[in-house]
Amino acid sequence: ASWELRSNRDFVLELAMRGRLDFQSVTWELLADKELMLELVKHDGFGLQFASRELQADKEVVLAAVVHSWPALQYASGDLRKEKKTMLEAVERCGLALAFVSAEPQ
Length: 106
Description:
single chain
């Protein structure tokens, strides 16, 4: 897709809703857009791996991704995976997420 389309929020969201989004082709600006990434990870939790570092450390974005796909938790920041309250919420949403909880929760 052209640069113009890859940086178009509506186009990117439409691709995600159709299950046709290639996160690697999305512009960095959109991958750092919290509102958009919240929607994208609801359609494909693995999109968390392409989110900005700030969003990989954002509890709301991470939990939205985990609801869609529990293995997405592996792309959450290390600090967030150590946070006991957040990990309890992730495991509550999907028990299998326990596989990616840090060994030393705080």
